Amino acid sequence: MNDFRERVTDIFREVFDKPALEIFDEMQAKDVEGWDSLTHITLIMALEESFGVKFTTREVMGFQNVGEMLVCLRAKLPPV
Amino acid sequence: MPSSDPRYLLLVALVSVTLPLLPAGSLRLRACLVVGYAFYALLGLPSLLVLGYVSVVSYAGGLWLDDCHEGGRRRLTLLVFAILSPLLTAKYFKSAVYILGMDSRIGLDVILPVGLSFYTFQALGYVIDVYVGRVRAERRLDRVLAFLAFFPQLSAGPIERANHLMPQLERIAEFEETRVRAGIRLILWGLVLKVVVADSLAPLVERIYSNPYGYGPSDIALATVYFSVQVYADFAGYSSIAIGTAKLLGIDLVPNFAQPYLSESLTEFWRRWHMSLSGWFRDYVFTPLHFAWRSWGSAGVVAALVATFTLIGIWHGSTWQYALFGLLHGTLIAVGTITAKTRAHWRWRLGPGGRIAGAGRILLTFTLVTLTFVLFRARDVHGALAMYGALATQPWQVPRLPWHWPLGLTLLVLAGDLIAASGYRFTLLPRPVRWCAYHAGAIAILAALFGRFIAGAPYVQYYIYNRF
Description:
By secondary structure, chain A is mostly helical. Chain A has helices at residues 2-16, 37-51, 57-62, 66-76. Helix content of chain A is 59%, strand content 0%.
């Protein structure tokens, strides 16, 4: 699980170009400078590519914070 | 009845005093709902029926969507059409008949109910939020009805989201002194913007735009700058009164403007102009489109931006000028987006440029927006093209329009925006200064109303955005 979170954190850091960024479940776009509607899709695409999964439009529109995004992503991965 | 009408202000005073007398909770919510429907009934029975139809469909649709955990896409599509159908009929049916070259007698003379496009979008946002799981479907009909008929924002927004407004309606009319004070200040500032600034500039703009071939470029340029100030003061004034009225009832509405004319780019402008609409289009149109076209790379971003802004243009009306207005903004923002990295690189190499460069970018953005407002304000595309032609080719002469007092009004709006943008809180000013400002504002509003009354002009004018 920690490995999963570290991978996601690395992707966030790369997308937002912030090497010290730490993610938390309640984190929203307003908490990260540069997280706008364009970088949001860049982030989704980076997660899709890195984990080899596909999100649906419904899922993407429903994310209200990082926690919900991670739960959805985790559910798409094979059980550890 | 526009919210700058003294009768509206009396209604607000009456409601904000009587609602807290009722027991807290559902009874107040229902009383507020009755006020909303009574307020809307003044527009006539058909308008009221449309509001009721959209509300009931949204309520039932929310429950219908909540029932299906998988799929549900067909249900959502059906609901979107059901909710959109009154708006499409009232706003676009005539144009569709005309464009398709059908018999013009088919085009019914449909009147667009005030606020229809605003509460329709609010209703669409609700059912989409239920579909994507952002909110649970509301089980109580009165809550959905009250959410879509909250009278301060019924006629022209701000377009609210279910997860923001609905929970607040349950604790409506809970008295909190600081919020009430803030509400009164917002209403006063909104009235200054609407009655003193917007309604004073309106006749000057109308004089030029009603006769696009009769004036030279200097008058056209001046009238267009006045229109930029007018439309902002008009809609930001309306929004300020709406947000202030809601605060009197203990409700915080979303902000609609954040000093848009101080933006350094068009992208930033749209983040600060009519924010509740641009945010709606970002979440419910741009994001799904961009996501669907993500594999196209930059072309996907461009296509999503152009499509979204063209739809924002068409939201304003079914004429070509609004579609072109949106298309133009979408194209300029798309160019700005795909060149952002290159421009950032050059800015890094050349140095930030300091405040002068920042002021230059603000001026450039304001000029671009103002130039596109020619399309927005002109009676039709031909009128707009004639004005663009005059601006580009005819010799500039001394304008016939007055400029002293309009400049004063413009500086007043600018000063308000600069103070707000600096983060300085008005409440930190010494009490005598604050009260001088309140009195000055009230006197200016009364003087403007009285002046129009004496001149025989309509002393209350509808908001520009009431037409959309």
